[in-house]
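Single Protein Entry

Contents — chain, fold
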Amino acid sequence: MQTTAIINFISDWLLNYAQTSKVQGFVIGISGGVDSAVTSTLAAKTGLPLICVEMPIHQNKIQVDRGLKHIAWLRENFDNVSSIELSLSSVFDDFTAQLPKNETPNELALVNTRARLRMTTLYYFAQANNSLVLGTGNKVEDFGIGFFTKYGDGGVDISPIADLLKTEVYTLGKELGIESDILSAPPTDGLWGDEKTDEEQIGASYPELEWAMAFNGDTNSLTEREKQVLQIYTKLNRVNQHKMHAIPICEIPENLK
C-alpha cells in the first residue's frame, strides 16, 4: 500500500472536486474515531477552509474528549481549520418528549435519530458557508455491511475514504500522525450514549469483516468462527442493500403517459 501517495491522491481529489463544484470548503462531524480523524486531516491538507463540528448527544465524555483533542491538534497544524461545538442533547430530548406517550420508544430508531440530527446540523453549517459535507464511512461500512444510518451519517456530499478498508484507514492514520488514543480506541459509532463498540453491535471485528468481504472460496474448509463471520457479513449485506443503492423510482411506461 503506497500510503503517502494515497494520502496525496485523496487530498488532491478533494481539492479538485471542491474547485469544480465552486464551493468554499468542507464541513465534517468529529466523533473521536479514526474515520473522522483521518478524513478531516485529509481535508485540512487541501488548504481549503474546514469546519469541524462536535455534536454531542448525551455523549460519553471519553469520546467527546478524543474528538476535541483531535480538533485542537488540527487547529495547531493547519491554519485553515476552525471548529464549532454544538450540544444537541436538548434538541434530542425535546424530540423524544414529543413522542406518543402510549408507545414504547424504539431504541434503534432513537439511535438513528441522533445521527439524523447531526446530519441536519452539518448541512446547516455547510449551506451557511458554501461548503460540502464530508462523509467518513469506509468501504466495509458503506459497501460491505451497510453499517451507517440512512440519511444520517450516510447523508453526505462527498466520500473521501469509502474505497478504503478499515485497516487501510488505520494505516493512513498512523502516517498522518493521528493521536495514538484515537488509533487505539475500539471503533464505536457513538450513538448509544455509552462505549458500545462496533464489534459488539455487529458481532465481528473489522479485519474479520474484510476477510468475509473478499471471501469466494469453499465454505466447507472454513472454521466454525469463519462460518459465523461469513454468515454475519452475508446477512448484513443482504438486509442493508437498500442503503447501498439509489432510491428505487417507479418508472411509468410511455403508453400510460
